[in-house]
Automatic annotation (TrEMBL):
<dbReference type="GO" id="GO:0004252">
    <property type="term" value="F:serine-type endopeptidase activity"/>
</dbReference>
<feature type="transmembrane region" description="Helical">
    <location>
        <begin position="162"/>
        <end position="180"/>
    </location>
</feature>
<dbReference type="InterPro" id="IPR035952">
    <property type="entry name" value="Rhomboid-like_sf"/>
</dbReference>
<keyword id="KW-0472">Membrane</keyword>
<comment type="function">
    <text>Serine protease involved in intramembrane proteolysis.</text>
</comment>
<dbReference type="GO" id="GO:0006508">
    <property type="term" value="P:proteolysis"/>
</dbReference>
<keyword id="KW-0645">Protease</keyword>
<feature type="transmembrane region" description="Helical">
    <location>
        <begin position="49"/>
        <end position="68"/>
    </location>
</feature>
<dbReference type="InterPro" id="IPR022764">
    <property type="entry name" value="Peptidase_S54_rhomboid_dom"/>
</dbReference>
<protein>
    <recommendedName>
        <fullName>RHOMBOID-like protein</fullName>
        <ecNumber>3.4.21.105</ecNumber>
    </recommendedName>
</protein>
<feature type="transmembrane region" description="Helical">
    <location>
        <begin position="292"/>
        <end position="316"/>
    </location>
</feature>
<keyword id="KW-0378">Hydrolase</keyword>
<feature type="transmembrane region" description="Helical">
    <location>
        <begin position="217"/>
        <end position="236"/>
    </location>
</feature>
<dbReference type="GO" id="GO:0016020">
    <property type="term" value="C:membrane"/>
</dbReference>
<dbReference type="InterPro" id="IPR002610">
    <property type="entry name" value="Peptidase_S54_rhomboid-like"/>
</dbReference>
<keyword id="KW-1133">Transmembrane helix</keyword>
<comment type="similarity">
    <text>Belongs to the peptidase S54 family.</text>
</comment>
Length: 386
């Protein structure tokens, strides 16, 4: 005769228990097995379309600038890499970064003090961050943007990085406008330094969640130094980099303080119990993380933005109060100078030759052509007067 107790026990043993349901965003590692302590946390993969769009725009603007420059025609074939035709570069003694002439940078939207104070062309504050002084500037800048920007966009999402990139570029343009002089300047590095400032803020405020702090700090310093050294060359503005870096740090302190949920090791009470408890704690921390720091950072950024904007609209020139400031943006060399002054040349045309003489130092040069634009005459005058 079948034992009823045995049947009851058999039914009990065959019962199946369903595991508790976890939130959809709960870390995948807590649903399976824990990793060993010290294993780097996985990145949150997401689209990097914001960085990609800005990179494509800047490449397109540079190509358009070189087509407008048309060295082969406007400089009568006196070009570097002349086999490129319309895309060939100005001679290295004119632009050591393999780029367009000074007048074409101005035509495409570079900053110069007279454009803001005399002609009130404030639209240049929006074109200035998308221009590059030359091919070298373009490659170094965009490689840095891709390296830093994709990392940040994967970690914190496209919206936040897009806001930081845009506002840092504009802040860099405002700071540059307070220091720019008679030589045209471009400032695409402002947005890059905004990303570097954001990376620094993330390393400081979320340092307890980072496992590779040393390598990230080394990368940040190398990119910062290399691009800042590039800013000592003609037409590249370093003040936009300083403004962008300050902006990026403050905006990063506002927008990216929330840490990512790290993986945790199981405890004696079980992986799921331990994970749920820490998950809830970290979600609460994300909601309430450092509100005072966020408010102070946002206030300082707003104050800086409003102050620099008012100063630019009033035409303030900080170089009038700071005699050494121009050397933050330029180091004198045999190939270029840091003196910002208006140059005047006397032009004489005879037969098929043109003679230009600098009225400041008496230097002159004879050119085997006469059909030349006024803008190009000014470019050559600047070269002769150096």
């Amino acid at each position: 005769m079948e034992n009823p107790m045995a049947a009851e026990n058999s039914e009990f043993i065959n019962m199946k228990f369903s595991p508790p349901k976890l939130p959809p965003e709960f870390p995948q590692a807590l649903k399976t097995t824990a990793r060993k302590s010290g294993t780097p946390r996985p990145r949150r993969r997401s689209d990097t379309w914001v960085v990609s769009v800005f990179v494509i725009i800047q490449i397109g603007v540079f190509i358009a600038t070189m087509l407008v420059n048309d060295c082969w025609t406007n400089s009568h074939g006196d070009c570097a890499f002349s086999f490129l035709g319309k895309l060939s570069f100005q001679p290295l003694h004119e632009n050591p970064l393999l780029g367009p002439s000074q007048s074409k940078l101005e035509e495409m939207g570079a900053l110069r003090r007279a454009f803001l104070t005399k002609y009130h062309q404030t639209w240049r504050l929006f074109t200035f961050p998308f221009l590059h002084a030359g091919l070298f500037h373009l490659l170094i800048n965009l490689c840095s943007v891709i390296y830093v920007g994709i990392h940040l966009e994967q970690e914190f999402g496209s919206l936040r990085i897009g806001i930081i990139y845009t506002l840092s570029a504009f802040m860099g343009a405002l700071v540059a406008a307070l220091f720019v002089q008679s030589t045209p300047a471009v400032g695409s590095s402002g947005a890059l330094y905004g990303l570097l400032g954001t990376l620094l803020a993330e390393l400081i405020w979320n340092r307890e969640f980072r496992n590779n702090k040393v390598s990230e700090i080394v990368s940040l310093v190398l990119i910062f130094v290399c691009n800042f050294i590039l800013g000592f060359l003609p037409y590249v503005d370093n003040f936009s980099s300083i403004g962008g870096f300050m902006s990026g740090f403050l905006l990063g302190s506002v927008l990216i303080l929330s840490p990512q949920l790290p993986q945790v090791a199981p405890s004696k009470g079980g992986l799921i119990d331990y994970g749920v408890k820490n998950y809830i704690k970290l979600k609460l921390k994300q909601k309430l993380d450092r509100p005072v720091l966020r408010i102070v950072s946002l206030f300082l950024f707003s104050l800086m933005l409003a102050g620099f904007l008012v100063a630019v609209l009033h035409g303030i020139n900080i170089n009038s109060y700071c005699t050494w400031c121009p050397y933050i943006d330029c180091i004198p060399s045999k190939s270029w100078h840091c003196k910002h002054r208006e140059t005047i040349c006397e032009t004489m045309v005879s037969n098929e030759h043109m003679t230009m003489t600098c009225m400041d130092n008496g230097n002159f040069r004879i050119f085997p052509f006469t059909n030349i634009s006024v803008a190009r005459v000014n470019d050559l005058c600047n070269l002769i007067c150096f």
